[in-house]
Amino acid sequence: MSVSNFRKAKEKAFLIAVGITTLIAILPLFHIIATVLMNGLPPIVAKGPVFITGTLSEGGIGPAIVGTFMLTFLSSLIGLPIAFLVGVYAYEYPKSAIGRLTKALLQIMLEFPTILVGVFVMDIIAIPMGTYSAFAGAFALAIILMPYVAVYTHEAMRQIPFTYREASFGLGLTKFKAVFRVLVPVSKRGIMTGVLIGMAKVAGETAPLLFTTGGLYQSYPHSISQPVGAIPLLIYTLVQSPSASDHAMAWGASLVLLLIFLAVFIPIRRSLKEVKL
Amino acid sequence: MAQKISEKVSEILGKIKTCMGFQKKGNKVDSFKLITSPAVLFVLALFAGMLIVYFYNAMPAFNREGLSVYLKDVWRAVENPSEEYYGLASAIWGSIYTSMIAILVALPLSIAYSIFVVDYAPKRIKNTLIITSDVMAGLPTIIYGIWGAFVLVPFLKDYVMTPLHRYLSFIPIFSYPPITGFSYFSAGILLGIMVTPFASAIIREAYQMTPFAYREAAFSVGMTRYEATKVMLGYIKPAMFSGVILAFGRAIGETVAVSLVIGNTFNLSANLFAPGYTISSLIANQFGNAFIYSHMLPVLYAAGLALFFIGLLVNSAGLYLLRRWEKNVSI
């Protein structure tokens, strides 16, 4: 009897421990959101709309916001077509040596240290160009973006029932037409998810931008061959400054970044069963 | 004349196409391969190019210092080039040390999370928990960084590090006085929080895959839920292992969040509360001014090369083990 009581007590303790530990695991997110709101709202409210539109000396992060959108857009422009084709290739040739190599490489790139990409792009683009530039930053981000899009494209197309393939080849379509006219449209949704998740991810990246975009916060960017700023990069710089007013700016910028991220990420995430990050 | 040239050109082009496998029998070009291959080649070339760039730029460091660039713990950045000497041992140590702390934090959290989500959470809460974890995985790392530097570090310093140091400083790893709070410990905890969702995703998926029959069997012989869970966890041990390896890979590559909380000091010590450096935070911090010195830049590329190989090795090992386990389970 006492043995079974002991076992029951152990079970109770276990259940409580699991519940509490789970709470601890997700608590940081809520604490982060709460502190970012608490510390980020006052500087934004104090400055008003200037915080969103003004330059850094006016007390705003306008150029950084524009820079982030510019970099995200440009990196998608560079990365999406390539990544899409790579994902399709990996789907079409799952058994060939190159196909398998590509697939393994994409998985590894998904986990790869992002700072290495930044230094690499500085070496092949920023140094030959002689200046930091939006293009170099966008290229670095494109390298981060590609594995997300490619892996999602690959996964989405793998979900298509094999009979669809048979049917399209049965109609006498060439491989090109079967893939791009039938199979890709069928898996459109999955591919779009990959695109959005990749974009949400690169919009928040800092390390690849450290040595590639330079940073521009006193005026709005006007050319892709010139340095631009980005919100994460600005936060990184401001946090390291000793002045308290810079820290307040950093919190405000973090709130803007957090809102952009949540606005993109939550709707995608809710419309799906699962994601891979 | 012009016609002859164009004939010649198309003949050569045809030969090239046949060689590269774009052209099948007959005269039809496989336009699928023609379009996708350049993209694949581009990605492969990018990866190879990365390796070459790091290797090429790191060569001077290997020529000058040999392998001791990785083994020695010195950082003499001085104006006189002949006196400059750099060793990366403390940064490599810092990377490994903080990532170890991170997985020690992440492992229990992610196991408990997986058990709770799969076994006990009602459907509504379950969905919310999974979304929360995914948001944590995708959250911009700089936000973890600013939270870590301004909230987590002071908290850990006041409520964890100071008491531990005060009462347990006879234990060597607690002996360093936590003056600023920026330390291996803070970095490890922050990294642990950051990689928990990645480990959770893998472990949860694996735990969900355990056959229901096993669970029924466990309960039918009268096991408590605790005992049944213990058995199930034994079943997914390999997946847990690969989850830990992949989390380690993420932690070791993280840059900005770590560099804001680790203190950025050259230091090779096991003291949890001592400030340190990691490879990635070293590159982030020193790269900008490395150009002033004559021999520092190649050393930083050598550091990048080390990170490159660690990342490659750790991630491919983790992915390989995970795939192998998945294959065994699905059969």
Explain the overall architecture:
The complex is a heterodimer of chains A (277) and B (331). Chain A is mainly α. Helices cover 76% and strands 0% of the residues of chain A. Chain A has helices spanning 2-47, 50-53, 62-92, 97-111, 114-129, 134-158, 162-170, 175-186, 188-203, 231-240, 244-270. Chain B folds into two domains: 2-65, no CATH class; 85-330, Orthogonal Bundle (MetI-like fold). In chain B, a hairpin with an 8-residue loop joins strand 1 (75-76) and strand 2. The termini of chain B are far apart. Classes of the chains: A mainly alpha (277), B mainly alpha (331). At the A-B interface, helix 1, helix 3, helix 4, helix 5 and helix 6 of A face helix 2, helix 4, helix 5, helix 6 and helix 7 of B.
Count of separate DSSP helical elements of chain A: 11
Low-confidence sequence ranges of chain B: none
- What pattern of helices and strands is seen along the backbone of chain B? HHHEEHHHHHHHHHH
Estimate the global geometry of chain B from the Cα principal axes. flat
Low-confidence stretches of chain A: none
* Oligomeric state as shown: heterodimer
Total tally of structural domains of chain A = 1
What would CATH call the homologous superfamily of the largest domain in chain B?
MetI-like
Q: Percent of residues of chain A in beta strands? A: under 5%
CATH superfamily of chain A: MetI-like
Going by helix content, strand content and strand pairing, the class of chain B is mainly alpha
Number of helices of chain B: 13
CATH topology of the largest domain in chain B: MetI-like fold
